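Reviewer 2 asked us to include a model.

Predict the structure of this chain.
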Amino acid sequence: MSALLLGLWLAAAQAAPADLDYIDAKRLADADEASVTGPAHAAMLAAQQALLNAGVVDCALGRPQTDFTAFTIVMRLDAEGRVQQTWRQGSSPLAICLQRYVRDKTVFVPPKAPFHTALDISFTK
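Predicted model (structure tokens):
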């Protein structure tokens, strides 16, 4: 896909976030995250890690986990970094709980809005 077509596709997808499916939201997250570099990238990763750590404590502490399949949660952030919408790939109890946990949380102040970001969770890597 040419850069022009990709740019048009990304602009159209961001203009209508309610119509996005998981695949489109994940593509936007990959592109948005790739646009963040340097210290801002490190800060973004630290904020994602902090959100994930808190979510795992909230969802799994004291509850034995038996399903360790990989999952991804994509989040659309507003200008303040608050999660406005989520998409999930994976159906483990932990994935479902974490998707609920991140809703309305503030992750980090993004360089633009909307900004898509993802938590890719794998227990084997």
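The radius of gyration is 15 Å. The longest strand covers residues 71-77. We have added this to the supplementary material.
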